[in-house]
Request: fold
Amino acid sequence: MKKSIAIDMDQVLADFYSKLRVTYNENFGTNFTDEEFLRTTQRDLPREDAKKLFDLLNEPDYFRDLKVLDEDAIEVIQDLQEHYEIFIATAAMDVPGSFTAKYEWLMEHLPFIKTQNIVFCGNKAVIHTDYLIDDSPRQLTAFKGTGILYSMPYNRSEEGFMRVHNWKEIKEYFIKQMEIV
Amino acid sequence: MKKSIAIDMDQVLADFYSKLRVTYNENFGTNFTDEEFLRTTQRDLPREDAKKLFDLLNEPDYFRDLKVLDEDAIEVIQDLQEHYEIFIATAAMDVPGSFTAKYEWLMEHLPFIKTQNIVFCGNKAVIHTDYLIDDSPRQLTAFKGTGILYSMPYNRSEEGFMRVHNWKEIKEYFIKQMEIV
Reply:
């Protein structure tokens, strides 16, 4: 039986933070550069602003026009699909307004993924695959299989996870796994 | 650590088939009684009607006003939540238009469920919990943990699964599991 890989969406497939940075700068009087914005995910907003941010993200189209984070991703996933069962697992429950936009984004950019293999969840402890590629150490810790940390400046100090920096490295990692088997 | 239970929605929590029967009778010239309709899930519609049915189910509100299948479910799940980690796992990917309605249905009828524990998926092989309660033998076979078949006339001939007929029985089953532990 094929081994299975679950792939997170935001900051692994979709470039969420570039858009989020603009949303911050336009709404909260900040002037973040991309580099500054990616240094941390800890941005303690006053309660009123946090509510406003949630409402903006929860708009039905917010997640629809995100750019693909690394153009290699598409081809690598298509290749991996020949040897692995590929699932997409995104914590969409954090922003319930995003369901349709996230689904349509996947249909546009990864039309070869089986819709039966798309998972909108919250806590990824519930995901039963052999591997999970995610930028969140919290989700990788909850996950029961082999976690692979998609490297981002804000997770640079996290240790104890296998770390990848781009989709070429992901391809190389899984080619090696096949050779070991 | 608490053991975990994933619970299907349609025909376990929500009475989907009563509404589906009316949809059939109103659109496809049938005259099914409830009893007749529940005998089988095999209803080979001509391609055009199948498309029409999908479009009707895919309307944003179709799944919003389904009745609770067994009123005991709410109280039993609330009780079980003290001893088990409860997840809701529904094959929403079959009908992507249903995402918001299904989410809102859960918020209305099971507001005590953590949103982080809601999963919209397709194939339930991807669900990592100790138990899954589902009316679908196909999903229970794909699932890797202990499957519990929610009995329906259309699955009456399926053997090899632990079978429950209502939520009182589910409660009794899990009370017994706790005594065994």
